[in-house]
Structures
1.
Amino acid sequence: MELTARFVRSALAISDCPRSDRVEAAFAGRSNVGKSSLLNAVTGIKGLARTSKTPGRTRSINFFDTAGRLTLVDLPGFGYAKIGRANAANITRLLFDYLARRENLAALVILVDGRRGPQEEEIALAQAVRGRRLEVVVVATKWDKLRNSQRGPALQSFVPIGLEPIPCSILSGEGIEALRHRLIDLAQQYPAPTRDAD
Ligand code: GDP
């Protein structure tokens, strides 16, 4: 099944986020975790989310509408050393504001490097939405980089985040279809409102 999407807008503040009745599945993770690559892979659109680090784009929230009512949201990556402490604090504020206040948010996809497992920051993301009725999906990225013998212990390292991850690799393709299905299922829970005939 396909999940096509197109870029609609970047927002540097919650007040810049589009006003709509669309539902959002937001992708969050540390810089370099493979977020852009994964967004490109699930939508099948190369370059949808830039894999190269475009200044500006990486600091903003980016919205990509799918054909249905679902919007995919690329949240700013955190933990990028080169942006400086003040910028990092602004990005963190924007990210957590979005997670706490964005009414359209229906699902949060937390990306974790499969080799590192969840750290304090990723657990904080899961905790930030705990009080909200959201679907939370955890993805273990770059799964191709782990040897078979490393995979069991790596999966064990996800226990503290409280959710079993979907292991994904954009190289082998593993997990991409499973993730796309979760998103399509979500989209189907929110069919487009039927318009009154007039
Ligand atoms: P972002 O900063 O989270 O958007 O990360 P990118 O998507 O730009 O990816 C960061 C780097 O990791 C790039 O060099 C990608 O090619 C690489 N990468 C992303 N996903 C995978 C994967 O599944 N396997 C491997 N081996 N490399 C990956």
2.
Amino acid sequence: MSLLEVKDLKVHFPVRQGLFSRVKGYVRAVDGVSFSIEPGETLGLVGESGCGKTTLGRAVIRLIEPTAGSVVLEGADLRKLRGEALRQKRRTFQMIFQDPVSSLNPRMTVGQIVGEALEIHNLAPDAAARRERVGELLKSVGLDPLHAQRYPHEFSGGQRQRIGIARALAVRPKLIVCDEPISALDVSVQAQIINLLGDLQQQEGVAYLFIAHDLAVVEHISRRVMVMYLGKVVEMGESRSLCRDPKHPYTKALISAVPVVDPKSKRQRMLLPGDVPSPINPPSGCPFHPRCPVAEARCKTEVPELREVTPGRWAACHLAQ
Ligand code: SF4
């Protein structure tokens, strides 16, 4: 059984206008997304900003209420859980946020931040046991247990992200949604955080849904990758195979934008015309057709299904093979 099974998940936000705030349309932020994650696996999720990846990550752990679809974690449909049952299940999944500054309460010490969940979920019998566990957690993310007495503003960006990771690990979750956890950090610190997440996965067996806009980062950390465009998955597959041989024109454009260190490389930068269209009124047919360099007449009217193009490789494009 997969750890997480997401089926046909939709998150549509109503757009209201006028004196009576009538609903004039919907932003289809996530529009029928399905995927699974195995225990201890990392699934990468990439796309430009506004493609719906953060909304999808939040909807999976019910920080945002989905409009339709199912999210089954260890056999339990999270959308059907309420009250105490949902509170109990919340221990199983956590989130690491993009901005380590605003995601930590500045009035709480590091010890209180990391220990809060231990208290909420009764995971330590008393204050002494809680202090000991907080010390262990800080050590596991490369911080000094004595840092528990300090406040978030006393730390660098990378250290704050380590505090956020320690907080997420406190409840021994099975799944962590990592929402662009390194994009606000200095380049020199990014690799350290990626390596830390990899080491912790080895030790704890935790699975990650790793959200990023940079395919190079996702290829490095993930076994499989999912590419999103305008609220839909347009390509999915094993990371190395997808990055070496992308099937969807949008993935090809994303890969061509990744800087290459080798000066002899012949890779051509593929510039996409126009901006990402509005998710309130997405284009007909293939939503990528107004920007697609190889679009055909049928792309304007026929919606391409996400289909298995070659074993283990899925793409939503009429021409993919
Ligand atoms: Fe381009 Fe057509 Fe494929 Fe869409 S279906 S990506 S428009 S070729």
